[in-house]
Every structure is written in structure tokens, then in C-alpha cells.
Amino acid sequence: MNSSPRLDSEPLNGNSVACSLFLFVLAEKSTKKRLTRHKIYREQMNITALEAPLQLRPEASWVQFHLGISRHGLYSRSSPVVSALLHDMRHFPTISADYSQDEKALLGACDCTQIVKPSGVHLKLVLRLSDFGKAMFKPMRQQREEETPEDFFYFIDFQRHNAEIAAFHLDRILDFRRVPPAVGRLVNVTKEVLEVTKNEILQSVFFVSPASNVCFFAKCPYMCKTEYAVCGNPHLLEGSLSAFLPSLNLAPRLSVPNPWIRSYSLAGKEEWEVNPLYCDTVRQIYPYNGGSRLLNVIDMAIFDFLIGNMDRHHYEMFTKFGDDGFLLHLDNARGFGRHSHDEISILSPLAQCCMRNEDPTFQASQLPGLTVDPLGSSPTLRSLSVFDLTNQTSALSSTQLQYRGLIISSESTKPSRCRWVRRKAQQSVPLLRLVLRALDRRLQIVLETVRACVEAHGERSVVAEGAAEQSAPDPGPAHLAR
Ligand SMILES: Nc1ncnc2c1ncn2[C@@H]1O[C@H](COP(=O)(O)OP(=O)(O)OP(=O)(O)O)[C@@H](O)[C@H]1O
Ligand SMILES: [Mn+2]
């Protein structure tokens, strides 16, 4: 188990969030030298300074997002914070940019033992916005409508920025609320990254391509070639912004290897791939031998099957919520790669853990967005219509709006770019329909799997009544901030 560095810290409260904000400002103020150097750099580069207003607002959407995290999920069902946060992440100017911690590990700038799996090819940046909120920026690496080639291994698959966005909306529709809010944005890599970053290494990896576009790449020990760079057009680069979780100091998280992890080598096979009774072993081992952890892993498998994500090597949890806290569905960039193929192996935790007796496999409330009727002649899904393009439910229109968010956010940009984005969006409409069809199809497979289990072992031993949270022996604190 790969645990986060500070498991023993005090519970997070509102004061400590405010305190950390002030510490941040103090830290920023105290690094005068660095700022001076940066100022000189900006003057040399003839860059107009984007001065950050040192104003911290406790009502800032990202602060409210952090304070609203509870043992039931990252935000509450009716939380107004999410839309405010999405708006702010899309519109607020950046005041700084840096590599993420795991990318820094590759540069020797931090302790590699604290990093789950450093990845250099996946260029991503941490952007700080003018309200001091942070977001993880994943740039567009391939055309939106491109399917992953059949011969690609999942671990060399591209990261898809739009998969991060779509996964957030699907997770929200399913009522899991375990994916940090994510939004699309056109980032001006010159103004919003190069001109605001204090990281000299990041500054040094910028270059202008033969087509006069501004590009940059990750400094990494392998595959550091300009063909792996990302480029603006000439400055604007489409990407996803995911809201940052509270820092590990304030809200420690565990990173746990997924028991159904895949082999990250060309020929290797993991035990779950060859042993159909693998779940019986997992079920006997802490923490999967009690509480709702195994059910949560099954939730995650269902989510991953729906989005087609084979890259769930670890999951993270807030330590404060204990063993039965929710699993964070972080990093969904390898979802939605192939709408024409359903990867059944992702459902293995659900299929293999179909229980024969005692402990029921499913909580009736497990898929809160779904009405699971495993014995019904045709499995029904309360929110099936949200995936149906012809059925305009409010949930659907919000999803579409977000898919179209990239177009909306481009309206303020240059006309040529607007036309380009609009053309792309038009091209992606048939794709959207294929993805929605895949979701419908996969949902039927999930419900079919549950039904087969019920048919084999009887409903009473498969489906339990009551919420998983209520059955937890020690529910722990309800709120991250209390
Ligand atoms: N929204 C977030 N807030 C805070 N930390 C995050 C967030 N998203 C990701 N991280 C941290 O950054 C790490 C890397 O992120 P992510 O997995 O999305 O990128 P990646 O390039 O796919 O990396 P890897 O190859 O390690 O999976 C995560 O394991 C997590 O600890
Ligand atoms: Mn990843």
C-alpha cells in the first residue's frame, strides 16, 4: 500500500483552510527575490504583467468546494458550488503555472517515493487561477473524434482531455460524485502558462514550431522528443481543467493499488485474469473483508466499464473518512477511447464477486442514479434517458452544454479559431451519438451481469437492503471540514 505522507495530521476545519490561504499569500510575499527575478524575466520578454490581486475570498468557489467535501462524496447532490467552480475554472485568468508533483519527480525536484507512478509522456500542468484556486490542466493530445487504435495497449493510449470532462459528468449523473469537477477551456499557452510560470524548466521547454505555433513538452527521462510536445494554434490550446483537491497536508489521502490492477508489461498477466475465483481471495483480506470497500471497488469497476477505462491502477481515498469512505475516481483521461468495443474484462470485479451466500454482493442503493431491477424481464434504469439523445432531460442538456462548453468558451477567441472549434464540434456530433450508444449498451451489460448473478444465487443473497454507509460499523466524521 502506498500511503500518503501525513496520515496523522489534525482534522481539517474551515480555519485551517483560511490559514493555509494566508500562509500561501505570505509565502508568495516572502519570495520577493524570486518575484524580482521573474519581473526581470517578464521585462526582458516584454511581457505585460498579469498582477495577481492578493485578495482571498472565503466564498471563492474552490474554497467552498473543499469545505463541502463529505463522506458521501466530493459535493452534495444539489450543491450550487459545482457550477460556480466550473464557471470560475473556465473564465478566471491564471496567475501561475507549474508541472504537477509527479512530473516534478521526474525532474528530481521532489521525493519519488511519494509518487505513485510518474509519467512524463502525459503532459499536464497545475494552473493557479486569480482566485488562488488550483486546477490540473490536461492538454488535448489527439483529435476529439479519434478512436484508440486496436493495437494500442491501454498503457500507451493517449490521455484524452475530453474524457476527463465527460467522466465528471457521467459520474455526477450516476450520483457517485467521486470525480473532481472538470471543464473544457482554451488556454493561451503563452499568456496563461509561459508568462506566469516561475518554473525555469517549464519556461525552457517552450519553443515555436515550424508552423509558428507555440509549443512545449514535458522534460522526461524517456520519449522527450518534440513530436511529443503540445502546441497552441498559434497560442490557444484546448484542454481540460480539473478542480484540485485540498492539499495532502489538510486532507491526507491514501493511494491504494487496485486489486484488479492490470499488468503494465506486454506479456504479463495478473492473477485476476487467470483465476476465476480471485475474488474469494480478495474478500478474505483486509480491507475488503468487511464494510463497503469491496462494493466501492465494484462501483468503480462499473464506472470504468461504462467509460472503457482500463488504466485504473490505483485509487485514492480521504483517510479521514475511514475504510468505508468513498473512492476517488481520479484520472479518467484514458476513458472513452473506443466506442465500438466493450471491454468486458473491466467488469471482472462485478462478475467475479457475485456471491454465493452470506454477504450480499450489491447494496440496493449501490447505484443511486439507477433503479436496478435485476429480476424484471427487462432491466430498467431510471436515468437511462439521460444517455438518450432523443430524450431531452435536464441532466442530458447539462451534459450537452458541457460537451459544448468548449465552443462556448471559444466565443471570445479569434474568429479563425472559433470556426475551427465549431467545425470540430460539428464533426464530433456523430461521435457523441456513438459514445452515448456505447453507454446504453454497456449499461445493459452491467444490469445483465447483476441479473445473471441473481438468477444463479437468488435475490436475497445477492441484493441487500439499505445504504452501504449505514451498515458501516464506524461511520467516522461526516465532513472533511468538521
Ligand atoms: N484534481 C486533483 N487534485 C489533486 N491531485 C490530483 C488531482 N488529479 C490528480 N491528482 C494527483 O496527481 C496524480 C497524477 O494525476 P493523473 O493520474 O490524472 O495523471 P497521469 O498523467 O495519468 O498520471 P499517472 O500516469 O500516474 O496515472 C494523481 O495520482 C493524483 O495523486
Ligand atoms: Mn493516469
TrEMBL record:
Residues 463-482 are annotated as: Disordered. The active site is at residue 311. Keywords: ATP-binding, Disulfide bond, Glycoprotein, Golgi apparatus, Manganese, Metal-binding, Nucleotide-binding. The keyword NADP does not apply. Mn(2+) binds at residue 331. One of its GO terms (cellular component) is Golgi apparatus. One of its GO terms (biological process) is enamel mineralization. Its main location: Golgi. InterPro entries: FAM20, FAM20_C. Residues 206-356 form the FAM20 C-terminal domain. Pfam families: Fam20C (PF06702). It is found in: Golgi apparatus. This is Pseudokinase FAM20A. It comes from Carlito syrichta (Philippine tarsier).
